[in-house]
Design a protein that fits this description.
It is built from 10 helices and 14 strands. By secondary structure, the chain is α+β, with helices and mostly antiparallel strands. Helix 1 runs antiparallel to helix 5 and helix 9 crosses helix 10.
Length: 370
């Protein structure tokens, strides 16, 4: 019994555990670098030698540029109008004392156009301006961006060898808001880490049988031994292909997610079929069936999901046959009595019939789907 239920727990939690691990890992890969730099601090761009420039998050103090060579725009699908969003300016690496430097690109929001153009003009005139501090991520130019970059330099008289020796195919992708990017990276990385931990804990708990704790408590609180429950479980008919819904003489066995549970049949007050029709925009898209089981001492009913109406009726028939103290079936009057006059409802059967399961002529009964 417990070995079978442990396997069921593993199967039921494995998919979610794997999804959590994959999703958590994806978030870490996506935002982990940003979170790392947000916590440890961005690299100073001017201190990086050309061979060190790859994929860092940097703080760049730009005081010279050589004009922009490319703009990125957005086209309105309704009006067809285009709006420039970003500009690609040529800069160089290192600071004023650097002897080994390369030309590369910085991609800035269009709001910086005026200041960056003034900076380029000042450089041509041999004057200086106050540096602009940018925060961003170093990325590699894609093929199209790099073609524009190289063709611009070719137009200025550069040879292919000079381009290869004097440039880097990277750009600083400037953040619109460093604090926002840092906050998003940290939050999503923490979410990713939490998902990984959740997936690992869930998987470990299933493989070590941790999800069997509840059903053992159910059995013990009903005053039964695990041996008697196991015998009852093994002889109980199954109502699903997975075998995770059984009705024995002592207990009704079902699974909630990865957690097997056992309802003490002696505590069941009322059971009936509940049918839900699903519609989308008024069109029927499906029907689900379940058996609602009300248990003494529990505020809310237990919902037993079943594959079809026949299975629901088979379970109710078994309750009616072997558990004579249980009210089986639904009417509005029964619902009203249950809610408004619980004592009268209990006197229908629960308080007036001995709680001893009977099973006349049903030895070896099983209606598990084949």
């Amino acid at each position: 019994m417990f070995d079978a239920l442990k396997k069921t727990s593993i199967k039921n939690c494995l998919i979610i555990a794997v999804i959590c691990l994959l999703a958590g890992g994806a978030l870490i890969v996506w935002q982990g670098k940003g979170a790392f730099y947000a916590v440890t601090g961005y690299k100073n761009f001017e201190s990086l030698a050309p061979e060190q420039i790859k994929g860092q998050l940097v703080e760049a103090h730009i005081s010279e540029n050589f004009g922009y060579y490319l703009e990125e725009y957005e086209k309105d699908k309704n009006t067809g109008r285009t709006t420039t969003k970003f500009l690609y300016y040529i800069i160089w690496t290192g600071d004023e004392n650097a002897t080994d430097y390369r030309y590369m690109t910085i991609k800035v929001p269009v709001s910086y156009r005026s200041r960056m153009n003034d900076m380029a003009e000042a450089y041509q005139n041999g004057t200086s301006v106050e540096p602009i501090t940018f925060y961003g991520e170093i990325k590699k130019l894609d093929e199209e961006e790099n073609d524009y970059f190289e063709s611009t330099l070719t137009g200025l008289g550069w040879t292919q060898q000079e381009i290869a020796d004097g440039t880097l195919p990277y750009y600083i992708n400037v953040f619109a808001s460093k604090s926002s990017m840092d906050g998003i990276a940290i939050v999503l990385s923490l979410v990713g880490a939490a998902l990984i931990v959740f997936g690992l804990v869930r998987g470990i708990k299933a493989f070590t049988g941790g999800y069997l704790k509840k059903i053992k408590e159910d059995i013990n609180s009903a005053g039964c031994t695990e041996a008697s429950a196991e015998s009852d479980y093994n002889s109980a008919p199954s109502y699903t292909k997975k075998g995770d819904l059984r009705v024995g003489r002592l207990f009704t066995y079902h699974v909630v997610g990865p957690c097997p549970r056992a309802i003490a049949n002696s505590k069941i007050l009322w059971a009936y079929q509940n049918t839900v029709t699903h519609r989308t925009n008024g069109v029927k898209t499906g029907t689900t069936y379940n058996v609602m089981v009300y248990v003494d001492g529990q505020k809310n009913p237990v919902t037993l999901d079943v594959p079809n109406e026949t299975t629901a009726q088979d379970i109710l028939q078994r309750y009616m046959t072997i558990l004579p103290w249980v009210v089986v079936g639904y009417t509005d009057d029964l619902k009203r009595m249950f809610n408004k006059d619980r004592a009268a409802f209990l006197n229908l059967r629960y308080n007036t019939v001995e709680h001893v399961a009977v099973e006349p002529g049903m030895e070896g009964y099983s209606n598990a789907p084949q």
